[in-house]
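Sample pair:
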Amino acid sequence: MEYKDYYKTLGVSRDASQDDIKRAFRKLARKYHPDVSKEPNAEARFKEVNEANEVLHDPEKRAAYDALGSGWQPGQDFRPPPGEGFRHQDFRFSEEDASEFSDFFSSLFGGRGPSPRGEARPRRGRDQTARLRIRLEDAFQGATRQLQIDVPELGPNGRVVPHPRTLNVRIPAGVTQGQQIRLAGQGSAGRQGGPAGDLFLEIDFEPHPFLHPEGKNIHLNLPVSPWEAALGATVSVPTLGGAVSLKIPPGTQTGRRLRLKGRGLPGDPPGDAYVQIEIVTPPADTEEGREAYRRLAQACAFNPRAKLGV
């Protein structure tokens, strides 16, 4: 393997400052950028400049590289130090990251190096994750949404760049908060002919005015009047599938929870809807209303604090 002199690639001395390296890289990047350069082999030179800057602009990578010493010269055969070499450093690269640079770079910073025949191996693209916010009604009925995302792809200059993509996503009925929908092959592009990764969409519900999901179950605080709670009543309750009738037993107290079986999100089995009773006291804002409360107090002789001993 040929030793690469990154200082020579950028045209700076081994004791160059970080500012010197930054200026040299910017100058060469403008000169050899494939989109604007007329220089021969501009793309290859641009990749070499990027690789040199990747090492020298980072103090830890530069220190590891400098530890090789100046004994090697460009063109000479290079072999990594025995054992783990520089892989003890914290900047270990994955196989995908290291493949963007040369075999020399990969051998220093944790890559696996070339294939036995010296050929680049096909590599699967990386999986991507995005959040998809939907209405609770969409989770109940199912829906189709158009989604615009930026997917990382390998650009013509050999660097990863965001690529906008529009997808039509089918949301199956019964999805829950935090559930992931897998879109096969819609992640990052593969390399060297490898397959693309997958895109995982994590479901996030928009806040609902009065329904609260918990898994496939739905919770609702239901206001009732004192006489409905005391005497019992049949009231209308909103659910994702429409309004249904609920029988409130006589003597119901605030906080009691009633279940509507199968009225949650669809599934096998479907979720339930849980209704928590909340007794709402009418305001005594008229003389007739106040008189009604006085008669009620006399008729019932009720002490709500009896259990407290007062």
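Residues 82-92, 111-119 have pLDDT under 50 and may be disordered.
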